[in-house]
Design brief:
Elements (H helix, E strand, L loop, with lengths): L1 E7 L5 H14 L3 E6 L4 H7 L5 H10 L1 E4 L13 H8 L4 E7 L12 E7 L9 E5 L2 E4 L5 H17 L4 E6 L7 H15 L4 E6 H10 L6 E4 L1 H14 L9 E3 L4 E3 L18 H14 L2 H17 L13 H12 L1
Helix pairs in contact: 1-9, 1-11, 5-6, 7-8, 9-10, 10-11
Bound molecules: 1,4-dihydronicotinamide adenine dinucleotide.
Length: 333
């Protein structure tokens, strides 16, 4: 069987880490026909459109995509390609497993949690305007429908992945209507999943608890902004942005991408750590039903860090992106 997968290499280190990931996927023996599209800052400059309709149509057709990071201008300029894709394809559930990898230096050796982030609304709805000069307004849009489906997703995910607990992260003490609704809906959904423990945490206190004792958390469900921030925080608990994978799921398609951005500071040097995207590709293989290939990739990553001194520069080594991928590919094949 051959799978057609949309490929968006993206900006900055994106093309480097996607090439490394393609090498490892090829080593699994799973046949993938990649359908590449440019998107991001480079595409905006070249074609005047950061997120071409053809790329969106390709993902709709193939129902699966692997995406490198894309740059987004700060303060002005075009709308984030990530936000555009997530909304156009209704990729409402962003899933980011954060797990200690033996051999990756970090403060903890027992982190194993999953962030489930609502991906389509909240403060990322993009409804912003100047009220009068000197006063700007940004609207946080929250719908019961979106709260319901992300809460259900988190509990279903917990159940089908052998997880024990779901924590709803919120700020309903201040945002009583928006976060209040998220919390009410999550409580209602929790009642239908009585095999899964549930609790709640206010987002600021949750950050403190995560930094002090991350092992107390299992699945965490939250809105768009909190999910964005906590994903990077949690990446810091297990060795940094270079090692945390992710995926965006909708009813009809899924886009797999690392948590990290385009890292312009190291782009083009061939030194980026491709682990995060390679592990995202393992999630992709799982979703395709290629479980054996997926676990071979995961085991190879675990082996590389636990048993060898092959390390990219972010983790204190000097091995380049492609050499890192070649070492993994050899183990996978
Ligand atoms: P970033 O994640 O690109 O970089 C933060 C720091 O982590 C940098 O020092 C970078 O060198 C390092 N880093 C990130 N990934 C790495 C890797 N794989 N290997 C080694 N080191 C790595 O975050 P930043 O600088 O805030 O954002 C840069 C651009 O990326 C922005 O335009 C931002 O909008 C975009 N971005 C895109 C995302 C996506 O497409 N999913 C996600 C986050 C940011």
């Amino acid at each position: 069987m051959e799978y057609t997968v949309t490929l968006i290499p993206g900006d900055g280190i994106g093309p480097e880490v996607t090439a490394a990931t393609q090498l490892v996927v090829a080593a699994t023996g799973v046949k993938v026909l990649w359908e590449p599209f440019e998107a991001g800052a480079a595409a905006a400059e070249k074609h005047g459109n950061p997120c071409p309709d053809e790329a969106i149509a390709s993902i709709r057709r193939n129902r699966i995509a692997l995406k490198g990071p894309v740059g987004t201008p700060i303060g002005s300029g075009f709308r984030s390609v990530n936000v555009t894709l997530r909304r156009a394809l209704d990729l409402y559930a962003c899933v980011r497993p954060v797990k200690t990898i033996k051999g990756v230096p970090s403060r903890y050796d027992d982190v194993d949690l999953v962030i489930v982030r609502e991906n389509t609304e909240g403060l990322y709805s993009g409804v912003e305007h100047m009220v009068v000069p000197g006063v700007a307004e940004s609207l946080k849009i929250v719908t019961e429908k979106a709260c319901q489906r992300i809460a259900e997703y988190a509990f279903r995910y917990a159940r089908s992945n052998g997880r024990k607990k779901v924590t709803a992260v919120h700020k309903a003490n201040i945002m009583k209507l928006t976060d209040g609704m998220f919390l009410d809906v999550t409580r209602r959904v929790a009642k239908r999943f009585n095999d899964i423990e549930s609790n709640e945490a206010i987002v600021d206190a949750c950050c403190m608890q995560l930094v002090r004792d991350p092992a107390r958390f299992d699945v965490l469900v939250m809105d768009n902004l909190y999910g964005d921030i906590l994903s990077d925080l949690c990446a810091g608990l297990v060795g940094g942005l270079g090692v945390v994978p992710g995926a965006n799921f909708g009813e009809n398609c899924a886009v797999f991408e690392a948590v990290h951005g385009s890292a312009p500071d190291i782009a083009g040097k061939g030194v980026a750590n491709p682990t995060a995207l390679i592990l995202s590709a393992a999630m992709m293989l799982h979703a395709m039903g290629e479980r054996d290939a997926a676990s071979r990739v995961e085991r190879a990553v675990a082996w590389l860090y636990a048993e060898t001194d092959v390390r990219t520069y972010d983790l204190g080594g000097s091995v380049g992106t492609m050499a890192f991928a070649e070492a993994l590919a050899k183990r996978v094949s």
